Fold this protein.
Amino acid sequence: MSDAALAVDLGGTNIRAALVTRDGTIRHLVTCATLAQEGPEAVIHRIVAAVSEVVAQERPDPSVPLGISAPGPLNPTTGVVYFATNLPGWYDIPLRDLLSERLQRPVMIGNDGNNAALGEVLFGVAKGVRHLIYLALGTGVGGGIIAHGQLIEGTRGVGGEVGHVSIDPSGPRCHCGGIGCIEAYASGWAIARDGELLVHSERSTTIRELAAGGPITAAIVAEAARRGDASARAVFERAGRALGVGLAGFVNLFNPEMIAIGGGVAAAADLLLPALLETLPRYTMAQIYPDVTVQLSALGGHTGIFGAAARVFYAEDGALGTART
């Protein structure tokens, strides 16, 4: 059992690497640009360089594994990234084996949403929780499901795609190709899309003024809402209701102790949570609802790093959390 793990957070913009101890201490954090447009080989080279810098400073034993939080559908058993929308050219990349060969140490890979759920249980607000629904609200909507201390990943390791569960067969088209997905309502791109519609229909001068001719983002729509723009507030209320309906389905299926919400869009929790918390009990079985609490993630910008380390510790320990009395 390792006392520490090397950890890599592979994002579309940045690569972050560090050594993480079991008590949650991050040591020698290295950050570099992903430069994803240069292709898989160049990105993998930068991952190796970042990890090598951490190793040179911290000198972990060669047996200490490397955990990776990576985007896109991937198989944690084979270590293959099927594809990643924010990483051009990433199709069927055997990332685990490539890194293991170059770094000469064990490598464990997991989807960033699933890893974040593991990290929340080991290091965040869900410590000790054995039944968790984790939701990552960012540009897209990811997450993970933990039941009885086990991460639910499915046959090909792609389980836990909570953002791509449809809550409305007549709803908007999602980037995944589905219709009415949670992501099509509550992601950063969906909120930005709704903000653009408000501007084009001349229902929000505040959003137009804040954008000042530039791209409309979820953060701009949130700022407009906080300035009292009723149409912008309605966008977040709609997203919150969608989250409430979707999460109620997960609560009814898995009877979790906690729902933890992280990701960049979670910074607008003051706008999302009222509608979510109002909607959730209306669609949750009365016998189950009292068991669950809703919490915001405590991991912040280190979610990917903690998640990558948690992937290693979870693989070594085989389960998470301790039973509640």
Observations:
- The chain has two domains: 4-118+302-317, 127-297.
